[in-house]
Amino acid sequence: MKRVVIILIVCIIVQNVRAQYNLEECQALARAHYPALQQLELQDKIRDLQLSDIARTWLPQFNVQGMGMLTEGMPELVLPGTKSENSKHHFVAMASVSQMLWDGNYSSAQGKLTRANAAVKKSSTEVELFQLHKHVNTLYFGILLLDEQLKQTALLRQTLTANLKRARTGAENGTVFPSEIDKLEVEILNTEQTRINLEAHREAYCKMLGLIIGTTIASDAQFQRPDSISKPNQRQIARPELEVFKNQREVVAAQNSLITASLMPKVGLAGYALYLAPNYSIASQKFDHLLVAGIKLSWSTGALYTHRNKRREVALQQEIIRSQEETFRRNIEREICREVAEAERLQLLIQKDSEIVNLRARIRQSAETRFANGVCTMTDLLAEINAENAARQTQAQHELELLRCLYEQKEVSGN
Predict the structure, then answer these.
(1) Per-residue exposure over 134-147, b if at least 16 CB sit within 10 Å of its own CB, e if not
(2) Pair 374, 180: CB distance under 8 Å
(3) Virtual CA dihedral for 286, 289, 295, 299, nearest 10 degrees?
(4) Phi, psi of 216 (to 5 degrees)
(5) Distance between terminal CA atoms of the chain?
(6) Burial of 12 (0-12, 13-18, 19+ CB in 10 A)
(7) How far apart are CA 340 and CA 332, in angstroms?
(8) Cα(142)–Cα(203) distance, integer angstroms
(9) What is the pTM of this model?
(10) What is the rounded CA–CA span in Å between residue 415 and residue 406?
(11) Phi, psi values for residue 374, rounded to 5°
């Protein structure tokens, strides 16, 4: 918890100074800002309170009772020539004290069950926090893709603007029709519309990301492209859900221990005191109190009738957890295989993208030269310019998709 707070403070300072973000900072901020994070500390406090209550069962237990009685028909023993002085109205006060010596490990099993239940709740909260990574990654890589598209749009505008200058020079020399210039200006306006749309989408993504990480992201904030990572180990799965299954098995094991403890006898010290007012006379003796102390043994046979069914239920619960974990592992392995295949596909496409971009650049340059020599129309030139821009956009998209895919593999496997 302290580590998360320190990371949060450092991230805020860095952002205020540079207005820059990276993926790790955003994930740390999202975790620190998420309301469920507070549940981890609260769950620890609840667990400690429950364990404290269990420990207090070993403290001496006191019980005091008082009762007013009306007696009738009580046998009496009186000496010859005397008369009974016993009253029919009595007040009886009773007190008992007990100290547990051995409870058949029942409190130990209760403590084990309490810790296991708390661990399940805590690991379930960690699963919820882990899901934040996926949301942050989606928005973060979405912003990076929009930034790349804005960059390519700016390059397209530069290319169109350079050709517009040459076209205007040609128009002044009478080698270019004014309609050709209009076509270029229309394309430049189209790039402006594209830029406006991309910036609007980027602003929306920044607002959504800002809500998750708990800070306002400036419109000019910069997002650093994550470093390329190696392929995660496909055989090693370290998802927090596995910790949930582990803790659930601990809960079932603790329940089994509790069943065993319920079959055991309990041994303790016990003392009883009774006070009677007015006193009760038996012959010449007056009785007004009674004290009893000794070792107490208690053993309930009720658990003997149900423990077999309870143990079968525990075994079935273990089977359910095992089945759920196996299903989860298979789903994760299938998802990892899909992401690996997607990464391999993107790597092959990127290799071809570089060749396509180089060829499209050469074709566009050739079209510019032919247009300058009057053997190429403006429509043909614009087609080649747009084709080159599309190739660059596709290359940038594939590169970011590959990076996102590698990080998605990392998130899916939990490594």
Answers:
(1) eebbebbbbbbbbb
(2) no
(3) 100
(4) -90, 125
(5) 21
(6) middle
(7) 12
(8) 11
(9) 0.77
(10) 11
(11) 80, 20
Contact between residue 241 and residue 328 where contact means Cβ atoms under 8 Å apart: yes
**How high is the pLDDT of residue 362?**
93
Q: What pLDDT score does 18 carry?
A: 46
Compute the half-sphere exposure of residue 243: CA atoms within 13 Å on the CB side of its CA.
Answer: 16
Distance (Å, rounded) from C-alpha 284 to C-alpha 18? 100
Contacts of 199 (CB under 8 A, 6+ apart): 150
SS3 186: helix
DSSP assignment of 194-251 equals HHHHHHHHHHHHHHHHHHHHTSPPPTT-EEPPPPP-PPPPSS----HHHHHHHHHHHH
CA pair distance 194, 199, nearest whole angstrom? 9
Q: Which two tokens stand for residue 307?
A: 């423990």
Q: What's the token pair of residue 301?
A: 């046979």
Q: Quote the CA–CA distance of 23 and 262 in Å, as a whole number.
A: 52
- β-pairing verdict for 285-298 and 266-282: antiparallel
Residue 300 identity (one-letter amino acid): S
Residues 6+ apart with CB under 8 A from 334: none
Each residue's pLDDT tens digit, 61-94: 888 887 776 665 555 544 454 445 555 666 778 8
Mean pLDDT (10-residue bins), the chain, 415 residues: 50 54 91 86 89 88 79 52 55 86 89 93 91 90 93 91 85 79 90 94 93 88 83 74 94 92 89 76 61 87 85 94 94 90 92 92 90 83 90 92 88 80
Q: For 37-58, write each residue's pLDDT tens digit.
A: 888 888 889 999 989 988 888 8
